[in-house]
Design goal:
Largest sheet: 5 strands, mixed
Distance between the termini: 64 Å
Number of helices: 24
Strand order of the largest sheet: 1-3-2-4-5
Number of strands: 9
Shape: globular
Bound molecules: iron/sulfur cluster
Helix content: 40-55%
Amino acid sequence: MIEPDVHRGFVAPDVPPSEVFDRCVRCGLCLPTCPTYVETLVETSGPRGRIALIKAVAEERLDLTSPGFVHQMSECLDCRACEAVCPSGVEYGRILEPARTQVTRALAPARSWYARLGRALLIGTMFEHLGVMRAAARLLKFYQRSGLRALVLRSGVLRALGLQDVEALAPRVSDRFFIPRDQRFSAPGTSRATALLHAGCVMHVAFAAWNEATVRVLNAAGVTVVVPSAQGCCGAITIHAGEMERGRGLAMRNIAAFEQSGADVYVINAAGCGSALKEYANLFHDDPAWAERARAFSAKVRDVTEYLDEIGIAPEKFGPVPGVVTYQDACHLAHAQRITAPPRRLLALVPGLELRAMPESSLCCGSAGIYNVTQPEMSQRLQRRKVDRIIETAPQTVATANPGCALQMRNGLDRAGASHIAIKHVVEILDESLRAGAAG
Ligand code: SF4
Ligand code: SF4
């Protein structure tokens, strides 16, 4: 049975699940786009099979906690590739997310003490209080830079604890953090608009260079950037972990911070977070005090590539950045936000850059939030597949627009002995080119 309250996630709660089920005509056109289906060729590991399973649970023909169902709700990457191609307009996310939330809740009492502690630390502490995240990042930085890491790796303790893969996926902490402190970065001359930059949670301590590049590129495009200190984590991981009220609290904080800023647009450079920010309205559909504010907020959110493509940058500002670049579509940009052309159009502006198409560029790399921790085997299969496609394409750089994809591809390329291939955000390449242009 699907409980009504779990629809208060990033899924539209106003549509009965049965309407979603009944829209699926079982044509199978979504199957070749589903990463877990193409890897396994098992019906229940594809969207059509998962829809049938969720329907069976909703109709009480299958138990919510049956191992097969639990496995499928966890194995699905929530990449939404199936949604993007479905000719019947099945909004798969509308049923997956509530089903997943219910499984999470139903299994909560059986969680081990360390799993509970991990959730409390991550969900209840770090994502809510970014100061705690910064303290943890400083500890991780000490571990990564002091020689302690080399010692731990040599000792074999991580392997003994089964933690070596998780450790390898940890982001390299930035040399300096990009902390929201009510900064204002004014565009030279007359400003075309004011953009609020969402600095992120992990982003502000591990991808600070992406935020810095974003500020410079927006400034070069004539846009003033503000970074209010009152903003916080987007809440995506919190909501997906089934903690709806906490997630709504994070959303309220961002909505209020962004309203007070008076910015024209809210720019984000992480696809997963952008997709969450654009779906805030679904969190407050039954809350008269917040519904309209959330709708107005989401309407102003733009991925940085979407926004730059919309406003345009004078082509003569770009200087040469020679090299072969391939672009990897992040699922939450390509499928959830349906943004595929803008990043490519922006990269095409860079003189000397050869943009080479990668086969299966929109097939998930296996990162998907914390999927590489919860489903390590499937995650590694998809990672290897992605790395093979990258190596076949033979680029010097892979451009992306999501931190999770960047970490997953970096880890996979390093394992495959292809550390020479760089991974960059699209804005980092644009920044390089604009700086080359400015230097003449
Ligand atoms: S493409 Fe749409 S209608 Fe066809 S099987 Fe997939 S979900 Fe169902
Ligand atoms: S969301 Fe992605 S992994 Fe899940 S069923 Fe759809 S295509 Fe497959």
